[in-house]
Every structure is written in structure tokens, then in C-alpha cells.
Design brief:
Helices cover about 75% and strands about 5% of the residues. By secondary structure, it is mainly alpha-helical. Helix 1 packs antiparallel against helix 2. The protein has four helices and three strands. A three-stranded mixed beta sheet has the order 2-1-3. The chain folds into two domains: about 140 residues, Helix Hairpins (Orthogonal Bundle); about 60 residues, no CATH class.
């Protein structure tokens, strides 16, 4: 019986490890998706800033074109001054020229403001590009590390699954059936260690004589409270969780 109990205990530890590995694997896709979304957000941020600069550059070019047209109009209007014949026409031309020049001055001021804003944005963009580049490298590193951990876990899972098959084949069918029944009913724990006269599954004290017998590991002893199979690991053994 001792050999069978040892196998049961090993099987329990394998099943807990497999469960933990599978739970971790279930979280990997979500974590990878989170990192992908974070990467996408960072790229979108820098793209929006670039689009803002491009939009201002486009507006600057439009205003410079408009300024050139207004300056050309001023020249043409000034050229017509030699053709006027009355003072009224002369005054009208002066008013038109003043208006055109006023518009040109406003365009020049707006162009200067745009140039200043564009310059500031480009400086900030350069800084942000460096920051985001660093962030993206960090995210890539996290994704790579996560993928490597996933690959390692997959290898471990494969080995533990293979070992589980070996162990189950060595177990008596009735014991294996009992173990699976208890595991399904008791939150994945069919076999638990017993320490200091206490079942480590439900943490209820077991009778002293039962504890003595359990320490021998030569008979199938079950906790009178939770019905789990008790296993003695020794004083230095770890508690099954």
C-alpha cells in the first residue's frame, strides 16, 4: 500500500502542477493582447502628433499662398494708381491698398504663430518619439519574455502529462477511481498531507491514533471530516495546497 500511496501523492502533486500551468496558459493570450493594445496605443499617440504637425504645415502653406496672392494684389493695385483720374478714385485705391496690406500683415502674423507652434510641436515630437521608441522596445521585451515562458510551460506541461500517464498506469484502478472522485468533489484535492494531527485539506484535527497510523503510510486512511486521503510526508515535508 505504501507504494500506491506514494504514487497517489505524486499524482496529486502532478495534477496541481498541471492545473497551475493550464491556468497560467489561459492568462497568456489576455496578457499578450494587453501588450499588443498598449503597443497600438503608443503608436497611435505618436501618429496623432505627427498628423497634427502635418495639418499645421498644410495650413501654413495655405496661408503663405494666400499671402502671396494678397501681396500680388497690392502690387497690381499700386500700379493702377497711375491710371486714376479723380481724387475719389485715388482715395478708393488707397483704402483698398491699406485693406490688402492689413490682411497681409495679419496673414504674416498668423504664419509666424504657426511656425512657432510647429517648431514647438516638432521639438516635443522628437522627444516623444524617443520615449515611445523606448516604451515599444520594453513592450517587445515583455512579449518575448512572455512567449518564452509560455514555451517553457508548454514543455513542462508535456513532461508532467507524460509522467501522469506513467503514474496512473501503476495505480490500482479502485484507488485511481477513488482519487478522481475525491478530487472532483474537494476542489482538486483528493490526497492531502497530515501534519501535527491536522488534515491539511480541511485543517480539522484528526484523532491521535489515526495520526499515528497515517504516519506509517501503509494503509488507506481518510480524514473523518473531509474524507480526503491522508498522506504523511514527514517532519520536513511541505503541506499540499
Amino acid at each position: 500500500m505504501k507504494e500506491q500511496l506514494d504514487l497517489l501523492w505524486e499524482l496529486q502533486k502532478i495534477d496541481l502542477e498541471i492545473k497551475s500551468l493550464k491556468e497560467s496558459q489561459e492568462g497568456y493570450p489576455k496578457e499578450l493582447k494587453r501588450l499588443d493594445e498598449k503597443q497600438k496605443v503608443e503608436k497611435e499617440k505618436i501618429q496623432k502628433e505627427k498628423e497634427r504637425v502635418e495639418a499645421l504645415e498644410k495650413e501654413r502653406r495655405r496661408k503663405e499662398g494666400q499671402l502671396s496672392l494678397e501681396q500680388e494684389k497690392v502690387k497690381k493695385t499700386e500700379g493702377r494708381m497711375f491710371e486714376v483720374k479723380t481724387n475719389k478714385e485715388y482715395q478708393a485705391l488707397l483704402t483698398e491698398i491699406d485693406t490688402l496690406k492689413g490682411m497681409s500683415v495679419r496673414e504674416e502674423e498668423e504664419i509666424l504663430q504657426l511656425l512657432e507652434e510647429i517648431d514647438n510641436l516638432k521639438k516635443n515630437l522628437s522627444k516623444r518619439e524617443k520615449e515611445i521608441a523606448t516604451t515599444l522596445v520594453k513592450i517587445d521585451g515583455e512579449k518575448k519574455a512572455l512567449q518564452e515562458k509560455l514555451d517553457r510551460d508548454q514543455q513542462v506541461l508535456k513532461k508532467r502529462t507524460e509522467r501522469r500517464e506513467v503514474v496512473t498506469k501503476q495505480l490500482e484502478s479502485n484507488l485511481y477511481k477513488l482519487y478522481n472522485t475525491l478530487r472532483e468533489k474537494r476542489k482538486g484535492l483528493g490526497v492531502v498531507s497530515v501534519k501535527q494531527e491536522t488534515c491539511q485539506g480541511c485543517f480539522v484535527n484528526v484523532p491521535p491514533q489515526m495520526f499515528i497510523e497515517a504516519q506509517k503510510n501503509n494503509a488507506l486512511i481518510r480524514c473523518p471530516n473531509c474524507n480526503r486521503i491522508l498522506y504523511w510526508e514527514g517532519n520536513g515535508g511541505e503541506t499540499a495546497k
